[in-house]
Design a protein that fits this description.
Elements: H1 7-26, H2 30-33, H3 46-68, H4 85-95, H5 101-120, H6 124-128, H7 141-148, H8 150-163
Helix pairs in contact: 1-8, 3-5, 3-8, 7-8
Amino acid sequence: MPRPKSKDELVDLSQKNFDKLFQFIEEMDETEQNKEFPEGTMNRNFRDVLAHLHHWHLMMLEWYEVGMAGEKPIMPAKGYSWKTTPELNHWIWKKYQNTELSEAKSLLKDSFAQIQEIIEKHSNEELFEKKRYKWTGTTSLGAYLISATSSHYDWAFKLIKKAKK
């Protein structure tokens, strides 16, 4: 499906990609879900991937809260720039190493629901009009939400599917 261009498309695709990811994982038994991926990726198992998605949700929630309060959020996170995203992702990976897969699933489902609430409370124009909010710069709120949801879930699905071959 092409990149969402409306609220309805964003709600639909974020839910579909989220469900597709979880369905793929839940179709496997517990042993398979806890197996390590082949060498070559930083995220080495389902827990790593789901915790990564969860933490990016948390960052999106923080950007939104700070930005909508009229301040400029630190993006992507304090001490990091968009150029140092790999280092940020490594920090996220380390942060969740003692997290169980079941907890990562629960955390992700909770943060997904919070992101969906943000999407639901905005109109199509509020989501997709560029430069509407000072904190989103030249882009739209919807673009940030697409990156944090449907696009990110698609990345996770493809990563897991490739690792499980």
